Amino acid sequence: MSLDDATRDRFAATAERLAALAEQRIEGIRARMVELLEPRGDEIVLDAATGTGSYAIALAPLVRDVIAIDSVPEMLEEGRRLAGELPNVTFIEGSVYDLPVDDATIDIATIARTLHHLDRPGAALDELARILKPGGRLMVIDQLVSENEREAELYERIERMRDASHVRTLPDSSLRALIDASGLRLTRATSEPEERDLERFLELAGCTDAQRTEIFAYARELVDSGESAGVDLRVAGDGFRFTGRVGCYVAQR
Ligand SMILES: C[S@@+](CC[C@H](N)C(=O)[O-])C[C@H]1O[C@@H](n2cnc3c(N)ncnc32)[C@H](O)[C@@H]1O
Question: Contact, 169 vs 145, CB < 8 A?
């Protein structure tokens, strides 16, 4: 199956549950966007791989216009529903590699929790850099893996078993290098822990019982052999918990 097909299948199947999660997160994301990006109110924003629109909808009341792009129609449909009467968000089907806007026309570009689904994350960042006005800003948010290759690989096995549209989670150093290679200047980088319940994490990706059984057996093996996969994987009640890390980067053209 091609990556595009895997992405379409995975997100079409889980669009409704991801929209429910997005709805709970919008207020918190909005507060974070105010703090991180300090919008003036007159910006044109493009949110690439918007999914069900959590970042686009969070930003809309803070800026002039938001263009929200995603390749999966079911996700866009949920985004339009969540946006309701918001007058300044437009959801468009499209690819992060070929954004439907001219060079140097966007004040703020965002891409959240998506680079790990892309086989060419550097090309996506180049495309986002292309559309930014001089002085425009890019915000990248994504989960991170350990800088230790072995720990990263142990964790990545869980991601690959969970989701056929997963490609590769990057460590902080690789993400910084890609931003640098896109010609943008990093102005801010932070990361924070994200607490996860494994069962819920699998549910969000629409895992089958067979996938769950396989991943739980793998988690048990890791814990029994004293491996925490760089995410402090641990037993909690009948299941497992782990502490991921989410990086947030702002870079300027
Ligand atoms: C984990 S979701 C993140 C959605 C949203 N940014 C958020 O943080 O809630 C990843 C999204 O990337 C989209 N996506 C993956 N590959 C894409 C591509 N090549 N072009 C456009 N969208 C893509 C998927 O359809 C999905 O909606």
Answer: yes
